Amino acid sequence: MSRRPCAVSPALTALLVLLLAPAAHAQLPGDPPAPVEAETTEPPELAATAPPPRTPPFGEAGQKVITGATDVSVGGSWWSNSNAGTTSFAADLGMDVFAFRGISFGGFVYYRGYTQRAYSVSTQAYGVTEVHGRDESIGLRIGFNVPFSRAVSWWIRPGLLIGTSETSVDGSSLSSSSHGFAFVLRAPILFHLAPHFFVGFGPDVRIDLTRTEDRTGSPVSENLYRSVNGSGTVGGWF
After folding, report:
1. Alpha-carbon distances, residue 191 vs 25, 72, 102, 117 (angstroms)
2. What's the DSSP call for residue 63?
3. pLDDT tens digits, residue range 30-58?
4. Of 32, 120, 174, 235, which sits most exposed with the smallest number of CB within 10 A?
5. What are phi and psi for residue 75, nearest 5 degrees?
């Protein structure tokens, strides 16, 4: 009796291939270990860091500026052989806001109080008369900042003010007062020595548009005042 070769069905062959395929790829004893990809991390010193933000230049929109002129002072002067002399206090402060790049709007206040002891000559005696006075004003202005570089700029600020002044003499009924409007102009060259800080110097102009004086024993009169000076300024912005 003869044996017939055993025929393997195609379905059984496909099943054996599927079962033996994972084993073919399995690592055998003695085989070198499969390479493992190592995670690469960049050293901290080589990691890219963003540079710190640069301070914007003076005059950008939204900046608020506080300034004070060199009139902020307390002073006095005296004579050695009498009590004649002068003491005074003055303050000139302002605040401006840059609504647009290079264009600012602001206001300022000014106050000056003084006491002056001066020689007076009369038919009776040669003595010292004490005079008290004060000047007050408030104003609005517009500014135009012209940058030459990040360290230097020219800030031109024309404006209008309303002011009053009063003077009285001790031991006397003499007094005077005045009030009026004036055009003012300050145009300092600014030196931005550090971020958010500057100093400057430039022309300081005042021209009275109206000014009425009322003196004791005298009729009311118009007496216009004009001045052209150089003044310094110091300020900061945020």
Report:
1. 77, 19, 16, 39
2. -
3. 555 655 555 555 555 545 566 667 889 99
4. 32
5. -145, 170
